[in-house]
Amino acid sequence: MAQEQPNPNEVVLGQEINGARVVTLNRPRQLNGINDRVVYLLAQLLEKWEQDDDAKLVIFKGAGRAFSAGGDLKMFYEGRSSDDSCLEVVYRMYWLCYHIHTYKKTTVALVNGLVMGGGAAMVAPLKFAVVTEKTVFATPEASVGLHTDCSFSYIHSRLPGYLGEYLALTGARLNAKEMIAAGLATHFVHSEKLEDLEKQLLNLNTGDESAVRAVIEEFSTDVQLDQESILNKLRIIS
């Protein structure tokens, strides 16, 4: 199938290349923050591709220096005087999170930069989540008076020890090595190899999980936690 050219000014870009489908979050100046338009377009694309027999593999990525910094607080502030506009976006986002958790196609996230809050909800549930030395994870909702959101009450509760509670209450950040050790990501790939990995995935033309894993593992590197990592101090978190 020929590559479809998306509107370069849209906040979410959807591309169809052979059997692959690519979602690019495209608000780089806003660190790919999630607003109502992003939620709407993501849901539309994912529903369409899930029903498309020619779609074998779905790749998620972000433009610029972030995958996604999470929900756009400006949207909520500007909608504070409305009775239900913000609630509607929240409900749609929660549905989108559920859809991503239960998606029927093979999915890969290429995460090269910040991934926080609702943005991380598009990474942690995926079959393959590739992170780099530039990746930084956090769920900082508590710092703005909110609970962990977008499925992270579920995800955090399944992390080792009390790590989930610690991350939820403090908004502490994890690096790529820590994400892999905690089960929030699957593979570490150096950022300079990420473009080549994406090209290989686009040429794969299959959603077979073993084949996708084999391609990623050609580029991935085993990593070890730094000595000072919080994951080496879980016994003191209670």
TrEMBL record:
Keyword Metal-binding: no
Start and end residues of each Enoyl-CoA hydratase/isomerase domain: 21-232
Keyword terms of this UniProt record: Hydrolase
Catalytic function, reaction form: 3-hydroxy-2-methylpropanoyl-CoA + H2O = 3-hydroxy-2-methylpropanoate + CoA + H(+)
Enzyme Commission numbers on file: 3.1.2.4
Entry annotated with the keyword Hydrolase: yes
GO MF: 3-hydroxyisobutyryl-CoA hydrolase activity
SUPFAM superfamilies from the UniProt entry: ClpP/crotonase (SSF52096)
Top-level lineage group: Eukaryota
Pathway: Amino-acid degradation; L-valine degradation
Family of the protein in this entry: Belongs to the enoyl-CoA hydratase/isomerase family.
Stated name of the protein: 3-hydroxyisobutyryl-CoA hydrolase
Species, as recorded: Aegilops tauschii subsp. strangulata (Goatgrass)
Lineage of the species this protein comes from: Eukaryota, Viridiplantae, Streptophyta, Embryophyta, Tracheophyta
